[in-house]
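A quick word before the example. In earlier lectures we treated sequence and structure as two separate objects. From today on, think of them as two lines of the same record. Here is BFN domain-containing protein written that way.
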Amino acid sequence: MVSVIPIEVVGMAVPVPGEAPLMLLREPEGARRWLAIMIGYGEAEALVRAREQIEQPRPGTIELLGDVLAAFGQGLAAVELTEVRDGIFYADLVLASGTRVSARPSDAVALGLRQGAPIRVAEEVLDVASVQLEVEQETEGPATDVLDAEAEVERFRAELEDLRPEDFDDL
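And the structure line, produced from the sequence above:
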């Protein structure tokens, strides 16, 4: 049995104009490990719409997939990022019936956000592909939490700027 833990979607980043966007995920508590997964622009757009629950006049692919699951009486129980192999991230849609369907992480996360399903990551994925950021928090409270989250994203972006494609060769 693979150990999975919750992960939250922080947002999107484009470290260098013209480069592929990154989906930013982080551990909600504890060590505060972050994942940055490179995705396409279309996937980034779908992810932002799902995160913000923006409705469209006609369903996009993510909404269509949710509608198809509902039409077959299936709910989405969870999304799990399961592994990193040769620098490529893999995910599963875990249906209410227990059936697992392989999916791209960007699509799986967008569907999970749309459906309100928990998003989880295998501990092994975090061990192999995460960046850990230390954040000092002086006071508690919602205003400080927002500022700290923004500071975390800025620190993460600074770390991303120093990364090169070769840094991911060993994943």
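Notice the following. Residues 4-168 form a domain with the Bifunctional nuclease domain fold (CATH 3.10.690.10). We will return to this example when we discuss secondary structure assignment.
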